[in-house]
Every structure is written in C-alpha cells, then in structure tokens.
Design goal:
With about 290 residues, the protein is an alpha/beta fold. The protein folds into two domains: about 140 residues, D-Maltodextrin-Binding Protein, domain 2, CATH 3.40.190.10; about 90 residues, Periplasmic binding protein-like II (D-Maltodextrin-Binding Protein, domain 2). The strands form two sheets. It has a five-stranded mixed sheet with strand order 2-1-3-10-4, with helices on both faces. The chain starts with a helix and ends in a 12-residue tail after the last helix.
C-alpha cells in the first residue's frame, strides 16, 4: 500500500468515525428529547395547576421531558395506577404514600404543593344548619383521598361522625357539584373552583376547611423509590420543571387563568380569578416535604 493510499484510508476512517460520533450524539439527544413521562393528576381543581402549566407552556419539553398528563379521579385510584406501572408520577394527597408503604410499596413524596386542606363543606339551599346534615347522603370524590379527609374533618367540626351520614363516592369534584345540584346528596366537599361555582348556584358554605389549619399533604408529587434511583437525571429535570411551573403560575396570572379555564371548563372570570388567588397564595415556600404534616 502506497503512502498516498494509506493517507487516503486514514482520512476516510477519520471521516467515518466523525459521522458515527455525530449520529450517536443525535440519537442520544433525540432519545432525551422524546423521553415519555406519564403523569397522573387526581382532581379537576386549581390544586392541579402545576402540571397543567408545565405542559401547556412547554416547560416540560424545554427540560427534555415529553410529559403525558392523564386524569385519574381520586388520589387512591391514581396511587393504584402508579403501583401498577400505568404511570410514573402522580399528583395526589400524601396519605396515599403512607397507605402504600404500609402495604409494602416503595412510594416516595418528593415535591409538596400545599400543606393544608383547601376545601369547603357545602350543602344544598334547604339545609338550614350543619346539624341537619346528620342522617343524610353526603359526597366526596373517593374514600382514602384528601377530599374524604376534608369531609371527615368538616363533619367532625360540627360534632358529626362520617358514620352518622351515608358517604357516597362521586368520582370527581365536578360530580360532587352535580350531585348537590340534582339533590342526589345533601352536602359535599368541594375545592376551588367548584366550591366558588357552588356558591353562585345558591349552595351554602358551612365551613372553609382550610381555616381549621390541619397540617395535611393535600397535593404532592409521588413516585416509586425505584424510579428515583434508576432515573436520577429524569427526576432532576422533573423537579426543575415543577419549580419553573410554579414560578410561571405566580408571575403570569393571565396565562395561568387561561390554562385553568381549559382544564376546569369554567368560563366565569370571577370564579377563575378567585381560584387563581387561592392556589397561587397556598404554594409552600419549599417543595421539600415538611417533617410535620
């Protein structure tokens, strides 16, 4: 082989190696950009604003996450989907973590949104006093959810045990409101914007459960411990997306309200503005789960 031929062969090899490296780099970048992350949110409520805003404003994608949001009504149902591998992350109440770990599941809470129960105990117009709720049908989304915990706390405030009523699992917040409107239930637990809408429809608010100041992980991001260990980079990008979404919520009211309108199907500007105000103010100063809940 002549010197010229050897030089030509080395050039071809160098070019081949260069193009191979470029292709590998592009494959890695594409894989990262197209990484799918299934996130379940458990309520049609202002409490779920963080992932809604993260998706609609492109924050997830900017951080290399192809997030797919899935509505699974009720935190207990969402936790079951997480345990079964149908989703990788859920936004639900923290009591699901406790129940899961008691059942031997490796669930972890990694980003707290709200640390108290932002709900109202509402009743139909003909219910004159809270005492009249006793013996009647009342509604929550599902057993084992933050809405059920709020219902129990609200009834207890008036000296009523949940067992003194017939608790119906309505499925979601809009269904609780529909139950009140139709008379299927005499009272129910609602969070913004549904409680604000209920007031406009003539329903009575007997208690703002948040005023009881009960420490409670009302909505927190939850995943499996195995997922955090196996995909630390994904977790970093997810937490970064959560922080950026909260900043967007707090600094861009107009965009946030448009997104809130899209997901809640509420068109009333007053209800949307009040829902925004409540949840924008209720974000915890730190995402780290508090030691005392």
């Amino acid at each position: 082989m002549t010197t010229h031929t050897k030089f030509h062969a080395r050039r071809l090899y160098a070019l081949w190696a260069f193009f191979l490296a470029v292709q590998l780099l592009l494959c890695v970048q594409t894989s990262r950009a197209e990484e799918r992350l299934r996130i379940a949110y458990s309520a049609i409520s202002g409490a779920m604003l963080t992932p809604w805003v993260g998706l609609e404003t492109g924050i997830f994608r900017k951080n290399g996450l192809d997030a797919q949001l899935i509505y699974i009504p009720g935190g207990s149902t969402a936790a079951a989907a997480l345990a079964g591998g149908d989703v990788q992350v859920i936004l639900a109440s923290g009591d699901g973590v406790i129940r899961g770990r008691l059942q031997g599941l490796d669930l972890v809470s990694f980003a707290d949104m709200t640390s108290t129960l932002v709900f109202s105990l509402m009743a139909r117009p003909e219910i004159a006093t809270a005492a009249e709720i006793k013996g009647k049908r009342v509604g929550a989304t599902r057993f084992g959810t933050s809405s059920y915990a709020a219902l129990v706390a609200g009834l207890k405030h008036f000296g009523i045990q949940a067992s003194d009523t017939t608790v119906l699992q309505m499925g979601g917040m809009p269904q609780v409101l529909l139950g009140l409107q139709s008379g299927a239930i005499a009272a129910g637990i609602l969070s913004p914007p549904n409680n604000i809408k209920a007031k406009k429809l003539g329903m009575k608010e007997f208690l703002d459960v948040g005023t009881l100041k009960i420490p409670f992980q009302m909505n927190t991001f939850i995943t499996k411990g195995e997922f955090t260990r196996k995909y630390p980079d994904t977790m970093r990008r997810l937490v970064r997306s959560i922080v950026e979404s909260i900043h967007k919520i707090k600094t861009d009211q107009a965009t946030t309200i448009k997104i809130l309108q899209k997901y809640t199907h509420v068109d009333d500007a007053e209800i949307l503005a009040e829902t925004y105000r409540i949840f924008a103010l209720n974000y915890r100063p730190s995402l780290c789960p508090a030691r005392k809940q």
